[in-house]
Amino acid sequence: MKLLCTTKDLSEALSAASRVTGRTTLPILSHLLLKSVESGLEVTGYDLEVGIRTTIPAQVTEPGSFTASARTLSDLVNALPDAHVEFEADSAGSVAITCERTTANLLGLPADEFPDLPEVSEESTTTIKSGILRTMLQQTLPATSADEARAVMTGVNIILDKEANRVTMVSTDGHRLAVRHMPCENLAFSGTAIVPARALNELLRSLPSGDDVDVVIRLERNQAQFVVNRTTIVSRLIEGKFPDYESVIPAQSSIIITAQAQELSRALRRVAVFARDANYRIAFEAENERMKITAEAGGVGKACEEVEIILEGEPIKIAFNEKYFADAINVIDSDGVRIELTGALNPGLIRPSDESEFIYVVMPMQIA
Question: Which domains, ranges and CATH numbers included, belong to the chain?
Answer without folding.
Answer: 2-113 (3.10.150.10), 125-246 (3.10.150.10), 251-362 (3.10.150.10)
